[in-house]
């Protein structure tokens, strides 16, 4: 107890707080980590001020009420905006998606379905065909059937797909580079306490909303669900600027963002509870109970708004809502678990392949590919011929009109040339390329041509009398003839067989394209493609099981449960289980995923199959690497994210991690009362540390406090401008009282107000597992290491991440060997 | 850096770890707090050992696999057991509940419903009446109708109720005192890191299961939902003893208990997701994601088992599952919010009244009441007369048979005498009294006589053609006559009016009795009575709204939404909203409650009304006091529970809370190398601290580490027994190397292995809000306070709780004034 201390300094300490704060102290630079503890203290301080003032006047009381309710207000606004934007995106994407196929003559702004609603002439079976809706071939060539019109439709499909993709990537590149990707890895990082300015700003919001519609409509293998979370978080961030409580406090702002991400998932999947759990399980870092309630509220409001907008006209929040009516049987757990294994394998494969591709993209920047492609496409007929032969097998056998051939090749050539000239860099070209390949390959196969949501809906839905899908063309076995029936659990008809083939091709196509699509410079979600892949695989397994049960109904397994002709296997359920398994394999979510899917079906009944598949998928995936796709992308981008899920299992101690290492120069420390301004600036300029421990004296390294570099710089600047008599040789002191100085010395500079008097310390013997735990749970930025009360070193979040990476490298040969 | 330090000691430190551990070190006494950090470190150490061994042999590899899967195994077992026990309890309680009314002649073990299933003669309308089922009057007096048989039934009802209650309380008192109450406050405390040995043991499990059935069947105003959580936690605890990973680690064991409590709620309400959220929001303290997954799994398994048992014969998990088919309208939010206000008021009132009563019970122990009652009942006819006159108004007007009068009075007299003699203490008498009053008052009113779950079901269910309830006797308005119809949204018939009166009486009765029942020495849950109160209030409001809409269908509100004769108000929905609001007011749960009720209805549709009511109820309740009933009971019982929900808003610093206070004697510290065994024991005997800081020397108070009292005592004992040459004047040292001693001194005792080298420290200037945060998030037991590296004092969890209590007392006049 050498200096200060005792009860007396408590009041003086409080007086220090009341001193006018130095502007700028306590803010953060871009790409820096926030200090949760400090932010939370700041908020409580603010809260106390308001509370103490509120009895002064009615106005202050109103202000305090407003402050207390602002949390609910901001999540309500966020929910409203997210719901409205989601509705808008759904409607716009639907319309633009149908634009690829044709146009509604009676009203341009109707999509295919709405166009045909107004038509009275159609029967139920042909609800998709109506005179008002014209395909492009009908419109341009005047004929609906025949090879020419097929080519024309094909061409227009590619034309629109490329236009949308081009527009999307250009908008992203020019206006808001942060609008690309799914955004979830970055949001995870931001929520864990990192600052990325502009990532959740109004430009990002605007451009992401527009380009998301374009990207989805372009037919690329991507979904809108992940980006919707980003959009919702942008809304949350923008609205939080209306309330000083949230705009001025990075920790509080993150509470709003957690709620916003719940609202995003809520509207993406129509699953408010699933959204909250997603926010809790996957995204959030700091999740107090208050945030749980507000997340739930935001999710509900958003879902409610979306349902009022009713974008799909079925009073459901998502296109692929289903209800099943048949139970499942215990033996079906075997195929469900197999689907889980498939999901896990797919997830592990996808993560590796996608990360490898993204790493390649990062390093090579498509150095020489565009030129080759360009040269190749200078000879349009050859290039086109090449493409078409490779696709002709799956196309209706048809010749090519010379006109369309010419138009097509000119289009490809000119657009590519313009692109390379205009864009200058290659991300744009890459998007166009991927979009072109996707469009060219996707069109001939009905399962890849249609909207992915619609595909999922078709795969999830059970065959019934109202289904006109190819998947439901079963042979009737009543009369033994080849008449077709839509009753499942019958022998499969040729419709089902051809559908199976097309599904297999679609599966391969989706698997390949998704790997190259995720990470493009357009908004791109991963949920829908993953679910589509799983749903295709699941449906295939489901139909196989169904046929197995039909042809071998005397097997002991089927005998017990399946009567002949009875509805015992539900292929749609297999599709749903497969979808959950694949999504689980990629993201490694479990509970939130099961709840999301549960909310899609609304039946407790199917939770056990889902859970079995999702857990299997997680376990299988984890065997190949514990990271989900979002963590992998976070690591790829080098964000400072300390994963709360991964357990630290090594035996290192704090002193093995702390800086300075034994080979480094000694730790830069400040003494509490014998530095001059010049010396202090010297230390700051020589080092690049973000902060400095303040010690008693050179002789006794006992810790007094911690001062941040940014705060010191700002404080000195401020003192120079405002306080007279501060010179280079002014003494700087962090103590309560000014040190006794020689008579002729200049006025000293008191910096106690920027001194953190309660820095976190651990002893050098503290196991790193505890240190990591402290960093995770308290959200620290740095922590001092002491030995018997003396300062030895410092550990920052970055040091810990580096240490984890090192340990990972050391143990890699082992874990890869599994 | 005076001693040790440097890289060399790292290996020696590890060697210390490998020294044989002293048995008993690292365990806890009963009613002590665990150290989460230490427990987690222990578990990681164990994990590392297994991991390093697993490559040695196939056997070790199998062991490591078993270890990795034991977590899933134990939650599976817990889920299975909880589901099975819940099914058992449901079936047994149902049977015994019907025993109060009569008996099934064809098969004694059938309850009323099952008895009449086997009968073929009954029509649907009279499904409750069948020749096999005999009421007690029929059986004993041979007549089913008439005043005599009414009295006989009344008497037998009371007889069974008292017998069940008596048996229950005696079993609890004699075999397992911990089996009483709901158990949730204690489980919350245990999960926060407190040790109560035997609270979750096999005796408690057995007795709680049996007495829960008895208590529910006795007709007391209590539910089985809370105790089911206790039962599930007992299962979890018992199964965790099969796995050393969980039995030997208090922190890991609590993970299992969290999962078990989720399973408990899952079977209590048939709501697996709600159960997980309940565990997360209400019960758990430390809830890592792994626990989330396992909780979900346990909840699912339990629900699955219960559904396989199918105790209610409706393939649902709970009796009161409902489905609504009509939507709600925006203006209905007004009555829903009013129900929320009612729920909040009821909750606040209930908590105050119940706590006041429990405090009285604790302090007076029913000092003089039993004698007065006893004397009163010595004169049986008078006493009986008194009771009957007070109840006759609501009884069918009827005379009394002399025989039953006599039997009745003898019974009351003798049972009370036996009780007072046998029990000796008054809890038993209190239970009997409350049970007697409940039974006497409950019988005449059909809504209180029936099982509370059945009542809730009846109130939740909408009127339809299949409903035979009084509540659905509407007047048909088609022909204008007084013919009755079961179609709602009609003028209410006399059946509805009389039902309304009875419901009002039931409401008052339930409100009063629940206050006195919760806290009795029998297993007693609060969920069902609270829900019943809310459901009654809600149904009353619902019917009122319905009649309002009928008679004023030209009001602008109703005009827009309600057509005449259409189904626009659903009174059952009001009952459900009211139930959620009341339960929310009492427990202050929000999200988990909404999810539980959502799972009961299975419709996203009704989440907004529920949310509105539940949030209103929480806000209204919080205005009168922020504690829920469980926190209030925790505080009443003085458990060391640091609530994670309440925010610390004061400006005190660590030095204001730390011990020793300025008036106290200085802190008892140990020096690292100059104490003798005798001195050490002296310090231990003179003080009652649980642990002591170890410092460098008397001169320099710099902190080296922390040693626990229990560990020191055990270590000295152990050294005396095992190590030769340890005398009273042996030097004790905590350093790495033995100090240099005079030649003739006895062998020194090295205690470094029990020294915690990484104690948590905060500076004296640390705001208490940060300290509280650290304690909560890291689960600390104590924390040392330093100033400039010197030890100043210590803060324990108890100190913090005392400090919080002090602050509460100071601010009480203010907050009470709101």
Automatic annotation (TrEMBL), chains A, B:
SMART domains named among the record's database cross-references: CBS (SM00116)
Membrane topology classification: Multi-pass membrane protein
Protein name: Chloride channel protein
InterPro entries in the cross-refs: CBS_dom, CBS_dom_sf, Cl-channel_core, ClC, ClC3
Stated role: Strongly outwardly rectifying, electrogenic H(+)/Cl(-)exchanger which mediates the exchange of chloride ions against protons. The CLC channel family contains both chloride channels and proton-coupled anion transporters that exchange chloride or another anion for protons. The presence of conserved gating glutamate residues is typical for family members that function as antiporters.
Residue ranges annotated for the CBS domain, each copy included: 658-724, 755-814
Residues annotated as transmembrane: 69-89, 157-179, 199-220, 227-244, 256-280, 329-351, 431-447, 499-520, 532-553, 573-598
Intracellular or extracellular location(s): Cell membrane; Early endosome membrane; Late endosome membrane; Lysosome membrane
Main location, first listed in the record: membrane
Phylogenetic lineage: Eukaryota, Metazoa, Chordata, Craniata, Vertebrata
Keyword Repressor: no
Family: Belongs to the chloride channel (TC 2.A.49) family. ClC-3/CLCN3 subfamily.
Matching Gene3D superfamilies: 3.90.1280.20, Clc chloride channel (1.10.3080.10)
Annotated keywords: Antiport, ATP-binding, CBS domain, Cell membrane, Chloride, Endosome, Glycoprotein, Ion transport, Lysosome, Membrane, Nucleotide-binding, Repeat, Transmembrane, Transmembrane helix, Transport
